[in-house]
Design brief:
Strand order of the largest sheet of chain B: 2-1-3-10-4-11
Oligomer: heterodimer
Strand content of chain A: under 5%
Helix content of chain A: over 70%
Radius of gyration of chain A: 29 Å
Number of helices of chain B: 21
Strand content of chain B: 5-15%
Structural class of chain B: alpha/beta
Number of helices of chain A: 16
Helix content of chain B: 40-55%
Number of strands of chain B: 12
Largest sheet of chain B: 6 strands, mixed
Largest interface: A-B, 33 and 36 residues
Order of helices and strands of chain A: HHHHHHHHHHHHHHHH
Distance between the termini of chain B: 32 Å
Shape of chain A: globular
Shape of chain B: globular
Chain lengths: 340, 447
Amino acid sequence: MKGEVLSLIRANRCTASGKAHDTYEMATTDIQAEVPSVPSHQANARRRVSRHFNFTPWLFLAIPLLIYFIWVIEPLFYSFYLSLTDWDGVTNPTFVGLKNYRTLLQDPVLYISFLNNLKVLSVFLIVPIAGGLSLAVLFNRPSRTVNVLKAAIYSPMVLSFIVIGLIWSWFYLPNEGALNTLLRDAGLGFLAQSWLSNAHIAIFSVTFAACWRQIGYVMLLYLAGLNTIDPTLVEAAKVDGANGWQVFARIIFPLLAPITTIIVIATIIDSLQFFDLVFIMTKGGPGYASTVLANFMFTEAFTNFRYGYGAAIAVVQFLLSFVFIVLYLTYMLRKGADTL
Amino acid sequence: MADIQTLLLDLQTGKIARRDFISRSVALGLSFSTASALLAACGSGNSGTTTGAASKDFTFTTNATTPDEKKVAKALVDTYSKQSGSKIKVNYVPGADYPSAIRTYLSSSIPPDALAYYGGLLSQFFIGRGLILDISDIWEKNGWATAFPQAFQGTSKGKDGKYYFLPQNWYWWATFYRPSTFRKHNVTPPTTFDELYTVCNKLKSDGVVPFVVGAQAPWTLAGWFDILDLRINGPQFHTDLTGGKAHYTDTKVKKVFGIWRDMIKRGYFTKSASAYTWDQQIPPLVKGEGGMYVIGRFIYDSFPADAQSDLDFFSFPTYDPAIPTAEEAPVDGYFIPKHAKNQQAAKDFLSYLGSVDGEKLFVTSGGGALSANTQVPNSVYSKFDAKGVEFVKKASAVSQFYDRDTDATVSTRGMAFFGQFFDNPDLDLNKGLSDLDQFAQSIYSKQ
C-alpha cells in the first residue's frame, strides 16, 4: 500500500509533464502484481480521481472565481457588447455593428488623445525611473537624515490625485503661482509660462505633477530591490578594481532588472489609463490639447451619454494597453530565456 | 418570458422557496445575476404593494447640492408636507452625478415620483423618448399658461404640444461689474460696441483687465459665444444654429469669431484664461484689477458678502440697432416620470411648487434664483434680483444657454473649439469651423 500512495503522489506532482502517465501506469501495474487482493474497480476509481480531476483547489477557487466573473469578466464582455450598440443610457441599446468603430477611426480627437498618451508615457518612462533610481541608490544607507528624506519623498504617494491636482494647479497659476513667482524672483522671468493653458506644454505640465507622486513610489521599489542584492557581489567587484559607475552599471542595475520590469509595465499601464490629473487640472484643454484616451472616453460616455461610443473608445484603449503589455512581456520573457 | 412570470408568481404566492427559485431560474437558462436581480425586484415589489393607489405619499429626488440649496429644498418639502399631510421621501443627489443618475431612475421600473431637472434640450431629451408624464392637466387647472412667460412655456412642451415640464426657477446672464471700479476709471456701462471698445481701451490703459474670464471648463466661453452671436446675428439665427438648422460654416458665424478674435488680440480678456476656474477670476474683479465679467447671476452668491452691494450688471452692448435684444435665462424645474407610482401625489406637489405660495417660499428661503411664475410680486425679491426680473422682461427673446440649446454631443465639441480658439485665435478658422459643422451635421442627421 505504501508504494501505491507514493506513486499516486508522484503521479500527481508531475501531471504537467508527459512522463506522468508512464510512471503511474508502471506503478499501478507493480501494485496489482504485488497486492492482488485490491479489487480492480477501487484502483480504477482512484486512478480516475487523480488523473482527470482534482476537486479540492476548484472548491476553494469557486467563490473568488464567481465574484471575479460577475464583477470583472462579465462587465468586460458587456463593454465589448455595448461598443456595438448606440445606447444612450435610457432607451434599450440598438445593435449597430462596427459603426462606432468606423466613426471613431475618423475622429481626430482619438489621434490627439492617443498622441497625448504617448507623450505622458515618454515622460513617465524617463523622469520617475531615473529620479527614483538615483534617489534609491543615494539613500541606500541607514541614517536618520536619510530616513526623514525618504519619508518626505514618499509622502506625495499618500495624497489623493484630487489633492495633488489642486496643489499643482495653484503652483502653476500664471500670475500668482509659486513656480512663476520663483522664476521671476530668480531673474528667470523669461521662462515663466502659462503652464496649463499653453496648448504646447499643458500635457507635460500635468504629467510632471504625476511624476512628483511617482518618484517616491519608484524609489521605494528600488530600495526594496537594492536590499536583495548580495553585498559580497559588490565587494568582490570593488576588490577587482571596479569604480563606482562600473559597479552600478555592471552589477547593481542588471540585478535590479526584475524590479525595472515591474516598474516599466506598471508605467505603461498607468500612462494609458492616465485620467485623474487631466480631469482636475485642465479638463483636457485648452481645446483638446491635454485630452488623453480616458478623458475622451469619460466625456463621450458620461457627459454626452453616448455610452456605445464611449465603450468603443474603452475597447480601443484596452486593446492598446494589451498590445503594449504583450509586446513587452514577450520581449522580457525571450530576453530572460536567452540569459538562462 | 412566460416561464419567468410563472416562476415569479410561484415565488410571490409562496409556492416555491427562494432557494428553489434560484435553481429553477438557472435551469431556465438565466444567469445567476439575472436571477438575483429578479429576486431583488420582487422583494421590493412585495413591500411596494402595501401603499395604496391613492396614496398622498411620494418620493422626490433633487439635485440640491450646496447647504443653501438643500436648505431651500427642505423648506419647500417640509411646508408642503405639513399642508398636505403627505409623507415625502427626499433623495438628494449631488449635481455632478445627477445627469447620469437621472438616466438610471428614468429607465428603472420604480422611478422617484417627482424629479428636479434642467430646462432646454436637457429635459427635452427625456420627453422626446416618452419617459415623462404629460402634466397638461395641472397646467390647465392652475392657469399656468398665463402665469409663466411664453419663453419658458416653449421649453416645457413636447413636440406634441402637451406640457411635460414645470419651469420653476431661472437666473440670468449679463455683464457684471463693480460700479466703484467704473467710477474710479471714469467710465460708464457701454450701450453700443463703439462705447464698449472705448471703455475697454480706457480700462486697459489704466492697467485693468477689461473682461475677466476663467475658462478651465469652457462653458464660460460658451457664454461669450452666445452673447456675441445673439448681438451680431440676432436670436433667430442663434436658435437655428444651436438647433442644427444653420451651419457653423455660415459667414455669420465667421463674423462672430472675427470680432471675438479682434477683442482677444486687443488684450480685452484675462491672459491664460484656461488656467483658471470661473470663480478664481472673482478676486480680480473684487480687487478692481478686472473690470467686467460676462457670467450668470450665481456670481452674486460667490461674491464676498461685504462687496455684494457693489456688484451690478448691464445688458451686453448692442452691435446692430436693427437686431432685437435677447438675453440668456436658463430655467430649472421639475417633471414626473411616466412610470411613477404615485402620479397624483406628485402632480399635487408640482402644483404647489409652481404656485405663488411655493415660489414665494423658494425665493424668500434663499433660492438663489428667480421665480418663473410671473404672478409672484416683485416685492419678495432683493433689489438685485428685482433688477434682474426687469432686465429679462425687457428682452425680446430669451435663450437657455449654449449647452442647453445644443445637442449635448455637439455642445461638448463646440465648447472645446471655443477653448482652442480662445487659446490660439490665429488658428485655421475655416478648418476648425468646417470640422465642427461636419461633426454637428453627423449628429443631427441621425435625429
